[in-house]
Specification:
Blueprint: H1 2-10, E1 13-17, E2 20-24, E3 26-29, H2 35-44, E4 50-53, E5 56-59, E6 64-66, E7 72-74, E8 81-84, E9 95-97, E10 102-105, E11 108-110, E12 117-120, E13 123-128, E14 131-133, E15 145-150, E16 153-158, E17 161-163, E18 168-173, E19 176-181, E20 184-186, E21 190-195, E22 198-203, E23 206-208, E24 212-217, E25 228-233, E26 236-238, E27 259-264, E28 267-272, E29 275-277, E30 282-287, E31 303-308, E32 311-312, H3 323-332, E33 339-341, E34 360-363, E35 370-372
Parallel strand pairs: 3-4, 4-7, 5-8, 6-9, 7-10, 8-11, 9-12, 10-13, 11-14, 12-15, 13-16, 14-17, 15-18, 16-19, 17-20, 18-21, 19-22, 20-23, 21-24, 22-25, 23-26, 24-27, 25-28, 26-29, 27-30, 28-31, 29-32, 30-33, 31-34, 33-35
Antiparallel strand pairs: 1-2
Length: 412
């Protein structure tokens, strides 16, 4: 019945196949039909359909959802096709995708009560040339995440803009095989965050005027742990200067204003070829997870971090006065060095070095500044009041992870 109704109401294109007839519709929706028509198009969508959102502004009071595989939702551009949720009655996301092989492109989502666009348990999810924005600017009442794939595989986020998220503008969590490229994240708490994920390439992005630019985290008590094989390269991470506006209790609330790139409790992370400037706390922080936790499977320290061939401008001159920023600047003095490592290792290794594959390696220009805070487990007091500033102690390298290959780009 669903197919018959769709064939009559939405005039699909009928394609002949060797196995019979398959329906593939190109469905055009205009804002003049009201939000009900858009919701109906998503409900009736079937595999192979393309939903075309014409220019205009939809004023939506409820969130949208898509559960059909192989669907493309395409607007006329993120400044021409706008889905506004300013009048949203619930607290959920603007658009929730729970299906595979979905392409979302060329439209904007504004002022959701919850997350902007969320994809959960999706395989081959593509988000392209989108804009997610909270138009009132930074505010703890804004939704947590802008573009938010979680528990997903084959994730592509490109050429998009996110502004105003109270947690992370672009957040990919507990996912595998990820490419985040050529996006702009600004005025969020975290610009871009990769959390508890396996194999990610983050490159060509601009992260500016966030609290922190790019975060690579691993957290306890989540179904997928042991994030690894992350490459962060050729990004512009500049002028991240927005005060932290995360709601109380969020882990991202620990990020100090003026953080460039932060690696916490992840493994085999390579940070190279980035351009960092104007980050007033520090350009680069390598750190252990700082909170108490009850999770026997969790490893709280970063392992196998290789930082090399980045370009550093002015930074560290006005560190945040909150707990993390003040701890760093009290030990290092000002300006805070370009690269800071808290120095935390696992308890048996406090007074000895870790295995080669788990060390922190740094290969930067001679004028790059560095400090190890030489802290003990769980970011307690430093065991020395004088940081180690000898970057030569971290000479060496690690084999680079292979570039991420996405199923949706196979053969391209």
């Amino acid at each position: 019945m669903k197919t018959i109704l769709k064939a009559v109401a939405l005039a699909p294109l009928i394609l002949a196949t060797g196995l019979g007839l398959a329906y593939a519709a190109e469905i055009t929706v205009t804002p003049f039909g009201g939000p009900e028509k858009l919701a109906e198009a998503l409900i009736l969508a079937e595999e192979g359909d393309t939903i075309l959102l014409q220019p205009g502004r939809w004023n939506l009071t409820d969130g949208l959802s898509l559960d059909a595989d192989g669907v493309t939702i395409r607007g006329a551009g993120p400044d021409r096709t706008v889905l506004s949720f300013k009048q949203q009655s619930g607290s959920g996301e603007g658009l929730l995708v729970t299906s595979d092989r979905v392409v979302l492109e060329d439209f904007a989502v504004e002022d959701t009560k919850g997350d902007g666009i969320k994809a959960k348990d999706s395989d081959q999810i593509t988000m392209r040339n989108l804009r997610v924005e909270w138009t009132n600017g930074p505010d703890e009442k804004n939704g947590a995440y802008g573009l938010y794939p979680v528990s997903a595989k084959n994730v592509l986020i490109e050429d998009s803009v996110v502004r105003g998220a109270s947690d992370a503008g672009i957040y990919v969590g507990q996912s595998q095989d990820i490419v985040v490229r050529n996006n702009r994240a600004e005025y969020n708490v975290a610009g871009i965050e990769i959390e508890n994920s396996f194999r990610a390439d983050v490159y060509g992005n601009t992260a500016t005027h966030n609290t922190g630019g790019i975060l690579i985290f691993d957290l306890p008590n989540l179904p997928q742990q042991g994030g690894h094989d992350i490459r962060v390269f050729e990004n512009d991470v500049v002028d991240n200067d927005t005060p932290n506006f995360a709601p109380e209790g969020n882990i991202v609330g620990i990020v100090p204003k003026g953080m460039g790139i932060m690696v916490m409790a992840n493994r085999n992370v390579h940070v190279f070829g980035n351009r960092l400037s104007g980050n007033a706390t520090t350009h680069m922080l390598i750190a252990a997870y700082p909170e108490d936790y009850e999770d026997d499977e969790y490893m709280f320290v970063p392992r196998g971090v290789y930082i090399h061939d980045n370009i550093y401008g002015d930074g560290g001159g006005a560190p945040d006065t909150g707990e993390v920023g003040k701890t760093i600047s009290d030990i290092t003095g000002e300006p805070v060095p370009d690269i800071v490592w808290d120095g935390v290792t696992r308890i048996p290794e406090w007074f000895s070095w870790v295995s080669a594959e788990n060390r922190v390696y740094i290969k930067e220009a001679e004028d790059t500044t560095f400090a190890s805070l030489k802290m003990i487990s769980q970011l307690l007091l430093p065991w020395s009041s004088s940081p180690n500033r000898d970057i030569a102690d971290h000479a060496g390298s690690l084999p680079e992870p292979a570039p991420v290959k996405l199923a949706q780009e196979a053969g391209s």
